[in-house]
Amino acid sequence: MITRRSMLGGALAAAGLPLLAPGILAGGEAHAAEALPPAGPRRAKGPVPPAFTMAMPVPTVLRPLSSTGAVDCYELKIRRSTAEILPGIATDVLTYGGHFPGPVIHARSGRRVLVRQHNDLDMPVTVHLHGGNVPSASDGNPMDVFAPGTARTYVYANRQPHASLWFHDHAHHMEAEHVYRGLSGAYLLTDDLEQSLPLPKGQYDVPITLRDARFDERGQLAYTMSDRNRTTVLANGRPTPYFEVAARKYRFRLLNGSNLRLFALGLSDGSLLTQIASDGGLLERPVAVPVLMLSPGERADVVVDFSRHAVGTRLVLTNTGPGRPEQVGKVLAFDVVRTADDPSSVPQVLRTLRPAAALPKAAVTRDIELSMDEDGRPDPRGFINGRMYDPDRVDTTVAFGSSEIWNVTNSNKRAPHNFHLHLVQFRVLERGGRPAGPTESGLKDTVRVMPGETVKLHVTFDGYRGDYVYHCHMLDHSAMGMMATFRVR
């Protein structure tokens, strides 16, 4: 019998790619135990420049091909290109429309967006709007790929509040490498509430994708599953760059676009970051934090006020997450180069969300276990509730309109994971048996789950009916099989 899995397997084989790359290791261990012997190829001495010698670019904002009535239409070619990630070197990348870093689509709640994606690669792809409440036909299911030389139109009704979303490839077993090589972009959804607030806007509202990479001696992106030597940190596609700012407030929309790395972000002068939003939009109130944690796929919007610093000051965004500080400790330098008027402010109340006690009563409680082989075998597997992903199996069926409690546990001893649900934004109720902290009090679609930890989620399935997936968004892990299907009916 021909299944969706065998069809994709044939496409992968035709593209010269294995269904499961040989020699992959338990990727989470790369960030859980520095004492473990290195996995994957050793990092070659490459042409990575010293920190803060390249400028960070601002991603290109796409203009609609047409705007009629309440619909904006875009057209993109998914194609190979080159980018000057390292000075003077053309690095091969995969892109949406030739843009690296990926482009930005601006959208508005209640206004539809249609994106016609043309596949100009030699392998199948699919496009997932991460955090989007979309029909299953436009969700970018890992098996719902479209072939080279064909196109697919994705329809986004934007029936949800403002949020800093993003889109990326999701073709199963290929998603990790495709995203690593560049197939991601920002989808910034706004609404009347967000626009009414006096937050920094325009050129002072900057999306920043953070990720890591490894380059070979020719300056090309080197990819190996679970590679621990991805120790070059990129901000908007440049290695540890600088960004010139005015002495005023900025809104930075931070996305962890890494396959595996966890970031713990702070400012070099010890001042606090003001977090105003998470995956699903604004928090109820701003939260001042010394360190901001982001696992792969998570987003956080922060406001930094540079008016406290004189022109000529350099402020560094640092990372104290897993890894050696001399390799991954510096992320991005903010150079204060001028003064500027600043009419913006951060209100003490940003939005109103239901308190946890007032959320709809849960009809069902489910236990979700994330795990992977960490016994040193050459081909580790990923599991949800003890089973690898099977696209022909529905693992969970939920009633449309119902609310549920999902207790998600990482049963590994060393490997961290995180958890992403398609279709919905959820609320994090508890972490490790304690109430979720203020940075996780808003709407979320991705949440970190450290070894031995359990997070308790409240989920309401009132968007669309159909089949969707949930998985670890450390993409090397989902490619290993840490993914499952849920059906809303």
How do the strands of the widest beta sheet line up side by side?
Answer: 12-11-10-14-19-16-17
Mean pLDDT: 91
Global outline:
globular
Count of helical segments? 5
Characterize the biggest β-sheet. Answer: 7 strands, mixed
Number of strands: 33
Give the radius of gyration: 21 Å
Summing up helix and strand content along with how strands pair, one would put the structural category as: mainly beta
- Oligomeric category: single chain
What is the end-to-end distance?
26 Å
Beta-strand proportion: 35-45%
Low-confidence stretches: 1-44
Describe the fold and architecture.
With 489 residues, this protein is mostly beta strands. Helices cover 6% and strands 40% of the residues. It has helices spanning 4-14, 175-180, 192-196, 325-328, 475-479, and strands spanning 66-68, 71-83, 91-96, 104-108, 112-119, 127-130, 151-156, 163-169, 184-190, 205-213, 232-235, 238-239, 242-247, 249-256, 263-267, 273-278, 281-289, 292-294, 299-305, 314-319, 330-339, 364-372, 382-384, 396-398, 403-410, 417-421, 426-431, 434-435, 443-444, 446-449, 454-460, 466-471, 483-488. Strands 12-11-10-14-19-16-17 form a seven-stranded mixed β-sheet, with no helix packed on it. Strands 22, 23, 25, 27, 28, 29 and 31 form a seven-stranded mixed β-sheet that branches.
